[in-house]
Amino acid sequence: MKKLFAILAIAGSLAACNNSADSTSEKKDSIDSVTSERKDMVDSTTDAKKNMADSTADATKNKMDSSADAKKATLNKVDSMNKEASKHKH
C-alpha cells in the first residue's frame, strides 16, 4: 500500500509539474494572442479615423473649389455685362 501511495504521489507531482509548464506556455500564447488582437484593433481604428479625416478634407476642398468656381463665373458675368454696357454708351 505504501508503494502504491508513493507511486501515486510521484505521478501526481510529475503531472503537476507538467501542467505548470503547459500553463506557462499557454499563458504566453494567450497574451501574445490578446496583444495581436489589440494591435489589429488599434490599427483598424487608426485607419478608419484617417479615412474619415481624408474624406472630410476632400469634401471641404470640393466645396471650396465649387464656391470659388461660382464666384469666378459671377465675376465673369458681371464683367461681360459691364463690357456690353460700355459698348452701348459709345
Q: How does the SSE layout of this entry go?
A:
Layout: H1 2-89
What does this structure look like?
The protein is mainly alpha-helical and 90 residues long. 98% of the residues lie in helices and 0% in strands. The model has no long low-confidence stretch (mean pLDDT 84).
Mind describing the biggest β-sheet? none
Say how many strands there are.
0
Sequence of secondary-structure elements: H
Give the rounded overall mean pLDDT. 84
Number of continuous helical runs? 1
Rg over CA atoms:
39 Å
Helical content (DSSP H or I, runs of 4+): over 70%
Alpha carbon gap, first and last residue:
132 Å
Tertiary shape: rod-shaped
What is the compact description of this entry?
The chain has 90 residues and is an all-alpha fold.
